[in-house]
Amino acid sequence: MAILVLGGAGYIGSHAVDQLVEVGKKVVVVDNLLTGHRAAVHPKASFYKGDIRDKEFLSQVFEKEIIDGVFHFAASSLVGESVESPLKYFNNNIYGTQVVLEVMQERGIKNIVFSSTAAVYGEPKVMPITEKTSTNPKNPYGESKLMMEKMMHWCEQAYGIHYVALRYFNVAGAKLDSTIGEDHSPETHLVPLILQTALGQRKEIVVFGEDYETPDGSCVRDYVHVVDLIQAHLLALEYLEQGNESTVFNLGSNQGFSVKEMVTAARKITGKEIPTRVGPRRAGDPSMLVASPDKACQILGWKPRYTDVETIMTTAWNWHQTHLDGYENK
Ligand code: UDP
Fold first, then answer.
1. How much is the pLDDT for 262?
2. How far is the CA of 189 from the centre of ligand 1 (A)?
3. Residue 301, CB half-sphere, CA atoms under 13 Å: how many?
4. Boundaries of each NAD-dependent epimerase/dehydratase domain copy (predicted)?
5. SS3 content of the chain, % helix, strand, coil (to 5)
6. Which of 9, 28, 183, 283 has the most C-beta neighbours closer than 10 Å?
7. Which residues, 6 or more positions from 34, have their beta carbon under 8 angstroms from its beta carbon?
């Protein structure tokens, strides 16, 4: 019996594949490699290149392999891009998930662990955000993920497909041995951008706004280490396998760091200057997003280990120093 990891060549998906293999699971990966990297996929996983929206292709994977659970990371995930190209997000994320659920229903597959996002909450006023905080997405990306959660809810009612939706806050860091890490093209995420600046690959970091109502005026986010984040996925799979009810969990650390604090932490870790310039706000950025992870800790028994920002930054720095061109030339 294997776990099918959709989007298993991406940053977060590849860490999931790695940990599943490490705990002895048989793993099957599907990825269209539009943003993922073949080199990021653990050699022990079976790999199928293709798109989840291609139902014939996906059905064939289920035909060839014996799948008993699905991890679903295959989605577009950039807020700004989603505002400019909402239909891309509805097609890839919502339609893609529809096909996944259709195939699961046809094949009688009952468990799916699904990658959701803090963007489903929009801009809540009260921190930390709990799973009871109302959802009110402010961009098509968050809307698409909320819709995907709702699709799973209705498919559970109709077909008994059980799900856990994990709402990620800001995922960062790399595997501790630096074999896999974060490599996007183009890069838009704060931690890799800061470290590329430390390496001299970029001139400066533009701080997107310093007039927010936060202690230093720059946006505050809750950074969670990718290895801890994936640990919660393995626990979520166990939770479903034990027959527990479908639900959602926040994955964060209840600690907020501002953009400027992240740059300061990176200067300390790297010993580099990391020039910054203050620019305008980025459209759609909430001032502060901090999660309460209590529900995941209590119900899943999640125990994040790499919660301090120095560890997150150090593991990411080790990856960047050993992968100057990301997965290229590796
Ligand atoms: N950010 C920034 N400069 C950059 C990239 C990001 O100031 O070049 C800020 C961004 O406004 C946000 C935080 O860093 O407050 C994290 O952004 P990222 O894109 O990494 O993740 P998001 O919060 O959008 O999921």
1. 98
2. 6
3. 5
4. 3-252
5. 40, 20, 40
6. 9
7. none
Q: What is the pLDDT of residue 283?
A: 83
CB 214 within 8 A of CB 288: yes
58-73 core/surface letters (b: 16 or more CB in 10 A; e: else): beebbeebebbbbbbb
Please tell me whether residue 113 adopts helix, strand or coil conformation. strand
Q: Is 62 helix (H, G, I), strand (E, B) or coil?
A: helix
Query: Which atom of ligand 1 is closest in space to residue 79's alpha carbon?
Result: 24
- Other beta carbons less than 10 A from residue 321's beta carbon: 13
Residue 19 has a pLDDT of 98
| Residues 10/73, Cβ–Cβ less than 8 Å | yes
Q: Per this entry, what is the length of the chain?
A: 330
- Please give the full DSSP string across 245-274, using - where no structure is assigned: PPEEEEE--S--EEHHHHHHHHHHHH----
Atom of ligand 1 nearest to the CA of 119: 25
Question: Which residue segments constitute the domains of the chain, with CATH numbers given?
Answer: 2-172+223-251 (3.40.50.720), 190-221+254-322 (3.90.25.10)
206 CA distance to ligand 1 centroid (A)? 10
pLDDT under 50 in the chain at which residues? 330
107-123: pLDDT as tens digits: 999 999 999 999 999 99
Q: Please, what is the end-to-end C-alpha distance for the chain in angstroms?
A: 31
Token match 């028994």: residue?
Answer: 301
Residue nearest to atom 25 of ligand 1 (CA): 170
Q: Write the ipTM.
A: 0.99
Report CA-CA distances (Å) from 287 to 125, 279, 283. Answer: 10, 15, 11
Binding-site residues, ligand 1, Cβ < 6 A:
79, 170, 188-190, 193, 205-208, 219, 221, 259, 282, 285
Which helix H or strand E contains 238, and what residues bound it? helix 226-241
